[in-house]
Amino acid sequence: MNSTTARAAITISDLVIKNLPDHLRDDLEDFRISYERDSGPTDLGRYYTTMRPYDEQMWLLEHHAKLYWDGLPAFLRCYMTQVIRELTRDGSLDDLPDLWLRAYQLGFLGRVA
Q: Which residues span the domain enclosing 50?
């Protein structure tokens, strides 16, 4: 199976996260597999905040940030925190999706000096 075929396949990350940027898609799926190996599977019966339309997600983040954060899949919260730390060290926070950057600004991903 070549990378084009692999990228076309639907992943669990794709099912629970709408509009995932291509540059994060494969890395997140690899992270999810590793995370679930240690922490157990993602509950696919749950309606995560990431499954809502983008505008609803942004509204929820702006008006009820803790509900937004608590409604994310556990593997995504962990992944987002890891990515934020790496991008902060590299000085490249501009590479983040808007929702992730806003979650960082609101303090949900921690401040990394």
A: 3-105
